[in-house]
User: What shape does this take?
Amino acid sequence: MSAPAGPLPSSGAASELDRLRALVSTYLPVYETRLGPQSVVFAVHVDPATLEARFDALRQELWTRRYVPILRRQGGEEFVEVVRRPTIRPFQGWVNIVLLAGTIATTTFAGSLIWLAYVGGSALGWSDLAWGSLFFGLPVMTILGVHELAHYLVARRHHV
Assistant: This one.
């Protein structure tokens, strides 16, 4: 988890704002700047043919300076909103372990109920839990695992 981002600095804000504007301008032409309490919004001109490459280069450079850009379109205009990157707190793995255990338990239970209905049983037993886990819980957990691993790999590939 990450802590909420703080406001942009008020002391020396002009020089910080000038640096951000200059940096964004090297990738996308800026024609207007708006300063908000938590971000700076730059109205930019974009070339659709080069937008993706230019924005990705901007994103990577701002990341090293502890900022995150957000590209959005509103009212026919394009804006790049720059916010401070949240500080990363130490990894709290216990939350992930509890969520994994809950997911395994619920998929096993759901599979057991499906198995019980399939065989026409009336009371849930240990064999129903075993067969439900094998034929429902394991495949669902495999699908979820591969899905989440794909999220992880794409995020790593794009340095997110």
